[in-house]
Amino acid sequence: MNFSSFMAALRKKPDTRVFLLSGEEEWYIQYAYKQILKLIGDDTGSGVDTVEGAADTDDLIEMLETAPSMFTSMNVVHLKDTVLFKKQGGSNKKLERFIRYIPSIPEGSLLIMTMHGKPDKRRKLYKTVEKAGLVLESDELKPWNWNDGGWLEDRLRNMGKSFDRNAYTYFTSVIGMMKSISLSLLERELEKLDIYTGSRKKITAEDMRMVMSGIPEVSAFAMLDAIDTHNTAKAEALLLRQVRDGTYLPVLIGLIVRHVRQLAQTRCYMSKGVRGRALATKLKLHPYVAEKVARTAAAFSDDCLRHAMLSLADADYMAKTGRGDIELLEIVILKLCRG
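Structure (tokenized):
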């Protein structure tokens, strides 16, 4: 189950004795792990016995059969980075014994297994854990699902702060440009924003520009935003800054291609009457971001975007064959800024 479903199930089944926390998003795994410990009154994890990797399953059974110490209410075993849920060949008597044992973990004992990546759902062990306990599957985050379960609102609530509308649009737009979304990275950026804004409760887009400038996507977003507002001087200055910072030219071309393609798609959908949340669904964007893209797309002509795509294809070919430089991209940006 996904993160929000897992947390809801955890609240309903506080006496669950076996967990598998798996997936691509480490923040979800760590947060779920801490919430399980919090539920049994061990916030610090001081009473947890941790075993890593390819553990002997007979040893795990022996550990789980041990009575809790006088200092803890639960006997907690954490099997970290387990390989038990990966594809394996042949039979294993010890594993079979462990599978039979899972449903009968004694009261007072708790088994938490964590792993990065997807477990093999065909394995008997997975099916047994899923039936006897709870399984978290934290899939890789995408621009349209990174805030499922209200992650951002929860973090802001804990900070005692909020975004204004422009800040929310800016934040989600930057995330929409990321190839890989990490909640751990986003949380660190929120912590920096919290420190930067001090006692002020409202976070603005300008705060983000100041604090998050070290994230490559922020500089790229600023450049694309300058193109969208037809600010030629600013767009070219930001392009030069990224090149000086070592950003590979084909990467920059790829970002602009993606953006121009998105604008073209938006104009196509809008010409067919697609608006609002329906447009956001089609573009696989957050509604706030889709709304901004729609306003931007309206300021460009179909011919401008079509010619930009052709010029970008030429620039990409020339850059990858060593026959082109930044001037080719500057010409494309100039044409886009003219609309």
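The two ends are 46 Å apart (CA to CA). Residues 215-339 form a domain with the Zinc Finger, Delta Prime; domain 3 fold (CATH 1.20.272.10).
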